[in-house]
Amino acid sequence: MQTEALLHAPEAATQPTLVVERLKAYYTTKAFGIDRDIRAVDDISLTVAKGEIYGIAGESSSGKTSLIKTIVGAIRPPLHVVDGTVRFNFGGQSYNIYDLKPDKLQAIRWRHLSYIMQGSMNVLNPVRRIRHSFYDFAFAHMGLDSATFWDKVRDHLRRLDLDPGVLDSYPHQLSGGMRQRTTIALATVCTPEFIVADEPTTALDVIVQRDVLAMLRDIQRDLGSSFLFVTHDMSVHATVSDRVGIVYAGRLVEEADTPTLFRGARHPYTQHLVASLPKIGDTTRRASLPGRPPSLAEPPSGCRFHPRCPLAMDICSKEVPPMTNLTPRHRVACFAVSGATP
Amino acid sequence: MFTIIRDLIRYNIEFAIGLAILLLLIGAVILSFFSPYPAADIYVVPPDMPPDAEFWFGTTSRGQDNFWQLVIALRNTFAFGLAVAFLSRILSLVVGLTAGYAGGRVDRVLMAINDSIMVIPHFPILVLFYFVLKDEMNWLMLVLILSALGWSYDARLIRSIAMSLRTRPFTTQSVYSGMSMRKILVEEHLPYVMPIVFATTMNNMIWSIGMEITLSVLGFTDVDTPTMGQIIYWANSHSALISGIWWWVAAPVVAIIVLFIGLFLLSMSMNEYIDPRSRLNRMGS
Amino acid sequence: MSLILDIDHVGKTFLQGGLLSRRSVEAVKDISLQIEAGKPEILSVVGESGSGKSTLAAMVLGQQLPTSGRVLFDGVDVASIRSSAARRAFMAKVQPVLQNPFEAFNPLKRVDRYLFATAANFMMAKGKPSRQEIEERVDRALVEVGLTLAEVRGRFPHELSGGQLQRTAIARALIPDPRLLVADEPVSMVDASLRMSIVNLFGALRDRLGLSIIYITHDLATAYYISDRIIIMKKGEVVERGNARAVLDNPQHPYSIALKNAVLTPDFA
After folding, report:
1. Which residue does chain C place closest to A238, by CA atoms?
2. What is the total count of domains within chain A?
3. Is residue C28 within 8 Å of C59, Cβ to Cβ?
4. Which fold has domain C41-64+81-262?
5. Of A137, A148, A150, A149, residue with least CA distance to A183
6. Which positions ≥6 away from A240 have C-beta within 8 Å?
7. Interatomic CA distance for residues B212 and B218, integer angstroms
8. Is residue B92's pLDDT more than 50?
9. Does B169 contact C98 at a Cβ distance shorter than 8 Å?
10. Residues on chain A bordering chain B, Cβ-to-Cβ distance under 8 angstroms
11. Of A219, B213, C87, C96, which has fewest CB within 10 angstroms of its CB?
């Protein structure tokens, strides 16, 4: 299984497709006199190169879903951007998401930038045949006449190993896995350059999951798109992602190429995460971390991991550790690792 | 309790206005106990006087002070609406929660009864009761009859919430904690049902008071007890509008409108406050 | 050899559709399974969605009745349990642990409520228990799962983490001193960093309290890690069963092999 893992080299020396700089996005709620600021995304910077699959790993309530919603511009009050920029580079043109007018953003969506949401299999309209969803989502963006459009759609489905007959089915006639794959085909029919996938294989059976991941790899290979792949399942990252960023409580704590992350993680949280997962064939005892993931409304001061960290020092509760480069492709935000002087 | 009310007044303008109106009306109701004239007495003051400093709302063709008549009528109508709402809520809750939770045959039987009552046309039945009971048709009878008619629609609403609650995992956990059905319904499920109960109380009061007014205007109720409908009945029978005695009709109509606006505002604002999602937000989840 | 649980050729068929077009779905087809008394074990039931594993669990808990065969608990047929006293006696011996800890507790109510209710309702054997007896029983159960009464007293579900909530749910299930726990996907909704502590807890409960646990999951890796025996279900039937490590190291049935091959490892070879 591992031998067929994706080990292609992303195209270097071209503009990165996505540049996120110092992004901050908070949920601000006011109800009956209670004001609350939930710091879902707190100062995150990352880049995704052309043709690269960047995995974002994090647990529930780590802020990772808010992060990608902010990146694709799909945010609504009470979530709002407090600081930072999100910039995409498509076909030589640079787009600052939060500077664009709504109609320009609309034009980019689906054509260049596509978002596979969590629970996508439920995104298809249950009372209409699937062909209508394809028409509604994609026809306007592609600017083709009807006959050519449907030819393209059928072609696309065949290339992704889906029977074009699904177009005439209703969603409930397909299994969960088929629906998910159809939705992915729908999200990619306009050949976008950047695809964001939020937990595309959670809630799918193991065997179906393997097929869906294979499909995503095929898409990546055919279209050369970049991926932002979000999942809490580390095994999926090991199989699919080129690089992985670990998000903890709204902050990025470590980022490295997949082999490095799994064999040589440096941040205590990542180390623990990777070590705690059970494997078939291995009966050694696994332990889990003490404490619990923090609330984003009242996060711990300084490094947000310090209450649970075995390497915590004085400085960790006072200051936020910056992301430092251990190697050009391995960043860690940890005072113990980067050798801060307390 | 008082902090809740204080919070609501401070942050929810609808609640503040609704509460103000309600307090005004309650003030009027309390005032009615100090009326210098017994309710049913007539020709105690000069008739057909327009509103002025002495008679704030004028006087009626029957020689009654319109203001005192109005506040007494307000008290009676209010009491009537509350009684019907209270009794019919109890019926809706018991039937709705039990049918939704128990399912199976219990549900089918209860819903058969429910639907049979729901389709009964209210007004013709009430007229029928009047003609059959005639003199025995007093306010208590009317309250009981309207309570028996007004619960079925809301029972179905409550039942649908109860059905969805039954499938939620915490219900399973409650069962395996050994809780009896009664305890689960009252302590676990009732909080989720309360917003619907409040909203339907509002509807119920509008309906029952509307029924009462209709019946009173037609003269089908006890004419000795002043209620809103009664005032309009007497006004009509003395052709008040044609005679130009507009204050006799205007007073009860305006009072009813103000009453409903107040109740509506209170109900809507409290609904938002006790709605489970809003409560969870305030608790910080 | 006395059996705690005897699932004897059990089948469950659901009827769907209305008067004119009925369809029958066989969720479970002829399954037999035994758990012996005196030999505490963790038995994993592994399968994909539609395999019938949750229906099987529901039948063991007495929430559904089999359409064929019998489920016997301590020699008593579950279908014959009618009176509330009999039901309570049954529930004292079999307790569930549910999948979503955040849904297993009413979000509007405090968590200790279920603990106290369970204690009050299941300690009736010697008459009504005093407040102090109830608290002691609850505290004892919480200690077994690594929590204390002080930590959960007066808390609402959203104030605790997924791991703490699931432990509280397990503690609640332990209060009546059951012989069998039926845990349906108990860790799938718990964060990865807290998951293993719950899985380890199951092993500890088996060893310390002699409790048998039916552990239903689609995650082969945790099943491998913690269980003694395993059965693999597909479309309502058992395709392979046996010692957990033996079966998963060396699966024989084509479906088991396909399942094992599809599992991703958190590993970089």
Report:
1. C266
2. 2
3. yes
4. Rossmann fold (3.40.50)
5. A137
6. A5, A6, A53, A55, A213, A216, A217, A229
7. 10
8. yes
9. yes
10. 29, 31-34, 36, 297
11. C87
Of B170, B188, B283, the CB nearest to C104: B170
Nearest alpha carbon to residue C229 among C218, C217, C215, C219: C215
C196 with A286: Cβ contact below 8 A: yes
Asked if the structure places residue A166 within a domain, the reply is yes
End-to-end Cα spacing for chain A: 45
Count CA atoms closer than 13 A to C58's CA, side-chain side. Answer: 15
3 state DSSP class of B258: helix
Instruction: Give a three-class secondary structure readout of A193-238.
Output: CEEEEECCCCCCCHHHHHHHHHHHHHHHHHHCCEEEEECCCHHHHH
Q: Where are the domains of chain B?
A: 2-283
Going residue by residue through chain C (269 aa), what tens digit of pLDDT does each one get? 688 898 989 999 887 766 666 778 888 998 999 998 888 999 999 988 778 888 899 899 988 889 999 999 888 888 888 888 888 889 999 999 998 888 899 988 899 899 999 998 888 767 788 888 888 999 999 999 988 888 888 888 888 888 889 999 999 999 999 999 999 989 888 877 788 889 999 999 999 999 999 999 888 888 999 999 999 999 889 999 999 999 999 999 999 999 888 888 777 65
Query: Do the domain assignments include residue A134?
Result: yes
Provide the residue range defining the domain that includes A307: 271-277+286-338
Q: 3-state secondary structure string, B154-201?
A: HHHHHHHHHHHHHCCHHHHHHHHCCCCHHHHHHHHHHHHHHHHHHHHH
| Residues whose CB is less than 8 angstroms from the CB of residue C39 and which lie 6 or more positions away in sequence, other chains included | C212
Read off the pLDDT of residues C123-158 as tens digits, 9 standing for 90 and up: 876 778 888 888 899 999 999 998 888 888 888 888
B106-144: per-residue pLDDT in tens?
999 999 999 999 898 988 888 888 888 877 777 888 889
Please report, to the nearest 10 degrees, the dihedral formed by the alpha carbons of residues B41, B46, B48, B54 taken in order: -100
Residue A257 β-bridge partners: A243
Question: CA of C240 to nearest chain B CA: how many angstroms apart?
Answer: 30
**Residues of B in Cβ contact (< 8 Å) with A297:** 284
Strand partners, A109: A113
Kindly state the tokens that stand for A168. Answer: 């005439």
Determine the residue of chain B that is closest to A32 in CA distance: B11
Which of A135, A165, A190 is a domain's end point?
A190
Assigned CATH for B2-283: 1.10.3720.10
The interface pTM score, or ipTM, of the predicted complex is 0.86
